């Protein structure tokens, strides 16, 4: 018999698994109420309620101490690291230096390793913190920890990540700005500058070739300019440290003498700066060879870098782009510093450099190119407008000056290089003379060029320069501008030989008249005149004798530039001028009586006691000469 649909449905329902219904009541009968009781267990977080000391250093935002903030620097999360660096920055900037010094070593040790952090924001926070810390301590206090910083910095300069390498340059800026002498002693950093822009070839240890970093945030040219700018600053710090003079022996000192004291030193002096050695394993007698070795690696890279940027000579001539201007300045400055270091190491160092690289420099930097001008605001070909503008702005920022379309500063630096290496060319001398005529202020590079000309002992060039300067000195607006240049020549050249071909004696005769005028006079001019007076040059001595009365009359009212009235610097210059009394040769009783009368009337004001001592001393000398 066929089953109907209803029977099939009933059979299917019986086969399904059914949940059993519970007939048990939830609560016993009569207790059908809600139980609101609950149990609580006390949870205690360690050191959450720890009391802070009254003098404990805490961050302004989260109120964390130095130890807690440094523990965050070891966290894997970059945001936590940045929070710790931010807290340390608050503590360093908001508290007194004396309170921070106790934590200084531990902070430097913890922060230095973050120079290698993969996060760019973390590295920027490290730069910010180190800059704030180094500005509050001396180089002596930083010296024990400096080796740690240098080691991590060397790793950052040779890191695989281009961002870490670029940010390492910011650390170098901080070190050179805050502690230049200490940085100059750690010359092991110098080879790493070359590693940032080049790599060693397999054929020779000293042979290097330029590298291109495709992952860098900046173009190759701009990055090389950045590296060479820091190398230039590093070499300048080395040159400056080598010029450091011994400590003054006339500094007042308090000496405690006890029963154990056997002697008291009359004077003390500091040690001179260490010679140039970028490898600490090199002995002192190998210093020149070490500099030559580094120079042999550096010079080909400088020439190749400049050749890549400058256009073909036949097409562009002396016109160069903005990036080439900045690169040219870096290259020339680096070479000048290397020459200076070679000169300090050995007298034959400059001759070796001239023989090795003189012709190469002349062919690549001077022949067919000098003087340089800016021919285009744009950058190299095959670049879009946005990248061109970005590169130009970066190059101008690295130049640290406004753009000069005539490249005056770069051309003068090239002239200085030519004079020091003996690259003879009348174009160089003509350019310096033209620059003197156009310049309305003292230019240190021009002054260095004149030093180089005088050092060559070429009297003909000295005569040419002197005649040009004497003609410019007649212009009242250029009197004090030209004065340092003429003084630099007169002080180093035989005046008798120079006077036969020029009218330098007429210029010397006019110098005392500057001291009688009512117009303000620079203090440097006063010091220079006193130096020349001590040399007893006849032309100047005769003029001093004839103008001494007018000089003393104008002395109280004499105005000195950049000095406040009756300030100590002004009185110091005036006391120096008063010493001309002692240098007067034609001393007689009439002049002595006039000075005595002025002293009685208190004509010299605060200078009266000093002038009186000079007057008594000069009278005593005069009486002895008369008695003899």
Automatic annotation (TrEMBL):
Q: Name the chain's protein.
A: Testis-expressed sequence 10 protein homolog
| Primary location recorded for the protein, binned into one broad class | nucleus
User: Where does the record say this protein resides?
Assistant: Nucleus
Q: Name one GO cellular component term.
A: MLL1 complex
Q: Which UniProt keywords apply?
A: Nucleus
Q: InterPro entries attached here?
A: ARM-like, ARM-type_fold, Ipi1_N
Q: Which family does it belong to?
A: Belongs to the IPI1/TEX10 family.
Indicate the segments forming the Pre-rRNA-processing protein Ipi1 N-terminal domain, all copies. Answer: 140-235
Organism of origin is: Cacopsylla melanoneura
Q: Which PANTHER family match?
A: REGULATOR OF MICROTUBULE DYNAMICS PROTEIN (PTHR16056), TESTIS-EXPRESSED PROTEIN 10 (PTHR16056:SF2)
